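Handoff note, outgoing to incoming analyst
You'll be picking up this chain. Sequence as last confirmed:
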Amino acid sequence: MKKLLLAFVLVTAVLSSCNKEKLCKSSTCGTIVNDEITFDAAGNACYSLSIKNKCTDNVKTFCFDYSTWFDGNIGEEFCVEGTTPW
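Most recent structure output, in case you need it:
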């Protein structure tokens, strides 16, 4: 019985690992770690959110419209549409 239980646990762990790896390859979600307003040379505002990818721990900064930026709070989960995983 112990061998059967051990085999079940190992198979479950392998399958979970494969699913996580597949999800991480396509993940564009993470935690907001910073928000700023910056301006380019022409004076255009960039309402930026820096997102720490939940799979890779890489941080990438994106510009959003004011409403999206205002609603995004540091520490919250956030998914970026229309981008590649980072």
